[in-house]
Amino acid sequence: MFIYNIKINGSKVFKTLFFIITLIVILIAIVVCCKIFFGAKKSGSSVDYVPQDHVSKISASNYTNILKTVHDDIDDYVGVKINFTGYVYRVLDFNENQFVLARDMIVSSNYQSVIVGFLCEADNAKDFADETWVEVTGEITKGDYHGPMPIVKITEIKKVDRPTEEYVYPPDDSYIPTAGIL
Question: What is the CATH number of the domain that holds 158?
Fold first, then answer.
């Protein structure tokens, strides 16, 4: 019968395990950093991964979230095509080809509202009277109206009936856009 006497040096085992675990954590961190930095370069523009004929539909439920997102980061959404409904609203200092495609946003429990919307430009904008409900399709561009602002260059506009969901609500934290995609 053989009896083995094994002596384990706890300090060396701990140091070896600590070294191996530290090495694994460092390798994982390097891989994650490479994915983040090199992956971001590949997806630099929405044009790279969104088909050019794709049109994002904006509804009453996501209207203010998208409006806020585009205003906050205009450059990421330049060139994105959108389709949405609202009413024509003009301010005195607009050009004759400009209007806001507006919605009334409820801001209090007693239904007080403010007007929100995208500034739009269309060659035939003067053909549509104020408070006319229209559906537009257009492309987001970067323009200037008292500072940088997204402007929707309208490619298609048509008169529609007042929708059943005519009011919109303030943006919430549940909407998380992916850069360049609405």
Answer: 2.40.50.140
User: What is the pLDDT at residue 177?
Assistant: 57
Average pLDDT estimate for 150-170: 89
Is 129 strand, coil or helix?
coil
Query: Does residue 85 form part of some domain?
Result: yes
* CB contact at 8 A, 118 and 67: yes
Residue 66: strand, helix, or coil: helix
Phi, psi at 44, each rounded to 5°: -65, -25
d(CA 85, CA 153): 15
* Strand stretches in the chain, DSSP E: 55-57, 81-89, 98-106, 113-121, 133-144, 148-159, 167-168
Q: Can you give the residue range of the structural domain that contains 157? A: 47-168
pLDDT category of residue 2 using cuts at 50, 70 and 90 = low
| pLDDT for 113 | 85
Instruction: Go through the chain and tell me how many residues it has.
Output: 182
Positions of E strands within 18-95: 55-57, 81-89
How do residues 93-124 score in pLDDT, each as one tens digit? 888 899 999 988 888 878 788 889 999 999 99
